[in-house]
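User: Hi! I'm working on a homework problem where we have to compare a predicted structure to a textbook description. Could you give me the structure for the chain below?
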Amino acid sequence: MAALMRDEVVAVLGRVDDITLAEIIGTGATRQELAEAVAWMANDEPLFNAGRRLATGRTGRLLEILAARQEDDEALLEAGRA
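Assistant: Happy to help. Predicted structure tokens:
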């Protein structure tokens, strides 16, 4: 499979800032790896229950990027409530 392109990332994640987009594309990950990272972000319990080990490699790196993005989004929301 080919590495991700901008349109593919946006198709999976929706609107993405340029820095996050560059980080994701820079991993060299595939669309399947991005989809797996998104699944881990959505709910890791079913994946663990299915016997899947914690994501590693490019999927693990994508997971780190997505987690940081989520933390940033949550911080912005919290700041807007203050």
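For your comparison, note the following. The chain has one domain: 6-81. Residues 6-81 form one domain. Good luck with the assignment!
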